[in-house]
Specification:
Oligomer: single chain
Order of helices and strands: HHEHEHEHEHEHEEHEHHEHH
Low-confidence stretches: 1-5
Strand content: 5-15%
Strand order of the largest sheet: 7-6-5-8-9
Helix content: 25-40%
Largest sheet: 5 strands, parallel
Bound molecules: phosphoric acid mono(formamide)ester
Mean pLDDT: 94
Shape: globular
Length: 339
Amino acid sequence: MMVSESFTPEEPRRDCDLQLNSSGNLQHLLTLEGLEAKRIQELLDRADTYLSPAGSPVIRTEDLVGMTVANLFFEPSTRTRASFELAAKRSGADVLNLDLNTSSRKKGESILDMIYTLVAMRVDVFVIRDGSAGIPGYIARHVDNHVSILNAGEADVSHPTQGLLDLLTIRQHAIRHHHGVLDNLTVTIVGDIAHSRVARSAAAGLSALGVGDLRLVCPPSLAPAAGLFPGATITHDLDTGIAGADVVMVLRIQRERIDNPDGVPGSDEYFANYGVTHERMTKAAANAIVMHPGPMNRGIEIESSLADGPSSVIRQQVTNGVAVRMAVLATVAGTISAQ
Ligand code: CP
């Protein structure tokens, strides 16, 4: 992963304010932290309109006809990249998937020079994944108001479209079993909380929507820094954390982000203490669902048959991901095309 030589991480981070334009409309999606509940609900409501039953034709729109979306992934991805591409195409956009292994960033071009070059080719929306904290916000600060930056995964900080698709999936469960409200719902996130942008974005969105009880379960060595999850309770005991939970979100250990593995459990020890299994799920609420953002390590953080079982909504999350990304693209396209 390359970082622009002109990138200045010490710039003040006000990503939540930065993502709205001067008229208060969503121009960029950088974080769910600080995003109003009303705006989140509007995105989820819009995503609902892009869902169609399996086996029926996918929904296509003309929301982005005449626009170009560029996917710039400086870290690996299967789900996010593919679903942004499908979402953009189903919305009528031209899509550019830049091969960053052969891009001129490898020759020392700064990230901003690369963005400005693509803007000159009339790219309107940039979907960016990067392993350095602050990159999406940094770029958003330096583009004009007819360009949109969408954060597709930023280090261990933020993954807002993953957060939205998780919220949509949880809301679907709440509609079926809890009258559509989240305030009496218990959501338990299990895994490597310390390095998880997925947990950060899910927690921010769930808090905004007023979730009843948010619990984090992790080994002590993978606990988050103090203050990152306001309102959540943290436990190191899986059975305690899972008891009565309506939603159990399982995360993998992000070994690629761990510089010093001392104290981090090996795979067998981790599965024994933190692996989510059928047996563990008997302590959760009746009708509880199991989520995982992927990629999954079967037999390490989740029992393989549980991932494929009736309580699993993992593939539903993937389906929801395309709809959510269509909703985000349509929303920011409406903002930037009105400039
Ligand atoms: N959930 C998620 O971000 O998956 P990818 O890394 O495959 O995009």
